[in-house]
Each structure stands twice: as C-alpha cells, then as structure tokens.
Design a protein that fits this description.
By secondary structure, the chain is mostly helical. The chain has two helices and no strands.
Amino acid sequence: MSKEILNVDLRLLILSMSLRRIISGCLQVIRSLYLYIIGYDLMAIGLLSMVAATVGAIMYNVSFVTF
C-alpha cells in the first residue's frame, strides 16, 4: 500500500469521525430542546444528557479497545 493511498484513507477517516461528532452534538442540542418543549424539567434533561454522554463515551472507547 502506497503512502498516498494511506494518506487519503486517513483523511477520509478523520473527516468521517469529525462529521459524526459534530452531527451527534447538534442532535443532542435538538433533543434537549425537544424535551424542554414537551415539558420535562431542566434537572431531568440534564441527567438524561449526562447519562447519554457517559454511555456514548464508554461505547466509543470500548470500540477502540475491542477492535
């Protein structure tokens, strides 16, 4: 495998991971706003966001260790 192909693959990997994290962050904001609009209190929204972020971080790190 040549250096150029590896370089392109690495760039695509970094780009896809970056886009995924940006979109995930935007969806978290939209989800929080939606929960607020339908009547959840701020403490529940914060707790749900904290749990979701923690589980997401654990799953993300486990995927790197496993594969």
